[in-house]
């Protein structure tokens, strides 16, 4: 008798702003993080863009969204839209 073990995987979630919604089922999201320099203790902003899967095409440019890590959907998409927190 085989016993199946269910993996409880915790996926990373990020918040960001949609900067482009021109693709078919794909949006590009800009995430800003404040980082403190280890030696000089100055804070600066680090930005990164993510390609996010939007199955229904609900998000528009300027929206604030929450997105979550998932399996690879294409060459660059590894994130999916969870919900839209604030409309533009």
Automatic annotation (TrEMBL):
Pfam family, one: Ribosomal_S17
Highest taxon of source: Bacteria
Gene Ontology BP, a term: translation
Molecular function GO labels: rRNA binding; structural constituent of ribosome
Gene Ontology cellular component list: cytosolic small ribosomal subunit
Keywords: Ribonucleoprotein, Ribosomal protein, RNA-binding, rRNA-binding
Function comment: One of the primary rRNA binding proteins, it binds specifically to the 5'-end of 16S ribosomal RNA.
HAMAP family in the cross-refs: Ribosomal_uS17_B
Family from the record: Belongs to the universal ribosomal protein uS17 family.
Quaternary structure and interacting proteins, as annotated: Part of the 30S ribosomal subunit.
Protein name: Small ribosomal subunit protein uS17
Organism per entry: Candidatus Magasanikbacteria bacterium GW2011_GWC2_37_14
């Amino acid at each position: 008798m085989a016993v199946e073990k269910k993996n409880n995987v915790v996926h990373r979630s990020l918040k960001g702003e949609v900067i482009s919604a021109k693709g078919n089922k794909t949006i590009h999201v800009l995430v800003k993080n404040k980082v403190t320099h280890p030696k000089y203790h100055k804070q600066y902003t680090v930005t990164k863009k993510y390609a996010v899967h939007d199955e229904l095409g609900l998000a528009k440019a300027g929206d604030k969204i929450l997105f979550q890590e998932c399996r690879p959907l294409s060459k660059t998409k590894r994130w999916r839209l969870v919900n839209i927190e604030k409309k533009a």
